[in-house]
Amino acid sequence: MVQWFKGNIHTHTNESDGDSDPKTVVNFYVESNYDFLVLSDHNHLTVLDYGNNHPDIVMIPGEEVTIREPFNIHMGAIGINSYVEPIYGNDSVDTIRANTNAIHTAGGIAVLNHPNFKWALNDEIINKVKELKFFEVFNGDKGTNNLGGENIKSTEEIWDSLLTNGKLIYGVATDDSHHYKNFNSLLSNPGRGWIMVKAESRVQADILDNFAKGNFYSSTGVFISDILINKNEVSLDIDTNPQYHYKTQFIGQYGIVLHETWDLNPTYKIKGQEKYVRVVITGSSGHKAWTQPTFIS
């Protein structure tokens, strides 16, 4: 039976710059009812003794391929079958392309992490890398500047710019968690951002196959029970909490809001002139969910 599976694909342990050992990190996500997890330490493939056979959570191998100064490009390598050595190219475009291809060669899915970290990247750079199909629209680390800055696009504005230019790219939400011992707003704690993959089973191959196809949505706390997309409409069923209200925006070319509603079963009727449609749901709590874009032929 097709269902939603919750997972995080960007976490750190004390195998790189996290404050806790891998088993402690995994236990947090198990106790928080996650279905799958990627330990993505910097330039290190963290493998636990129980590997992919943990009884309570699917452990998907991964790494954060980290290219430091002068580029400050970090890339998630999801589902790799071997360690990926970071590659420094001639410029940012060359570096993203080289590492994306290296991740693909290692059998993984490449995700461009936190593009606004140290203001390293922009939509013009990302748009030149045709091989790249995933980036972080939300990163739970407070230093990653999701909202952009003066004359610098937010990650959502970057996304709409890329989509408007015809680039199909999927947006993921992640924790980028480092701190598991103390919890406050200034630390990089777990549980802030995740993806919900729609698949028939909770096995690595099925999870990764559907993730690669864009059969997922991203969330910081809003849940969707169903998404229906056909040639006539895009509609959703929000898995509601009665103490909150939910605003749904259907977003199109240039980031224009095509339709906005507070309905709990929001629907947008496709008119035909839209280049693409994606959906953002914002709860009155401040939590969000993002669906993946649908290009209108």
Tell me the layout of helices and strands.
Blueprint: E1 3-8, H1 22-31, E2 36-39, E3 58-67, E4 73-78, H2 92-105, E5 109-112, H3 123-127, E6 134-139, H4 155-164, E7 170-174, E8 194-199, H5 204-212, E9 216-219, E10 223-229, E11 233-239, E12 246-251, E13 257-261, E14 267-269, E15 276-283, E16 288-290, E17 294-295
Parallel strand pairs: 1-2, 2-3, 6-7
Antiparallel strand pairs: 1-8, 3-4, 4-5, 8-9, 9-16, 10-11, 11-14, 12-13, 12-15, 15-16, 15-17
SS-based class: alpha+beta
Q: Say how many strands there are.
A: 17
- Principal-axis shape equals globular
Overall tally of structural domains:
2
Low-confidence stretches: none
* Major sheet attributes: 12 strands, mixed
Overall CATH architecture of the largest domain: Alpha-Beta Barrel
How would you explain this protein's 3D organization?
A hairpin with a 5-residue loop joins strand 12 (246-251) and strand 13 (257-261). The chain folds into 2 domains: 3-220, TIM Barrel; 221-297, SOR catalytic domain (Immunoglobulin-like, Sandwich). It has helices spanning 22-31, 92-105, 123-127, 155-164, 204-212, and strands at residues 3-8, 36-39, 58-67, 73-78, 109-112, 134-139, 170-174, 194-199, 216-219, 223-229, 233-239, 246-251, 257-261, 267-269, 276-283, 288-290, 294-295. It is built from 5 helices and 17 strands. The strands form 3 sheets. Strands 1, 2, 3, 4, 5, 8, 9, 12, 13, 15, 16 and 17 form a 12-stranded mixed beta sheet that branches. A 3-stranded antiparallel beta sheet has the order 10-11-14, with no helix packed on it. Strands 6-7 form a two-stranded parallel ribbon. The mean pLDDT is 95. It is an alpha+beta fold. The chain is globular.
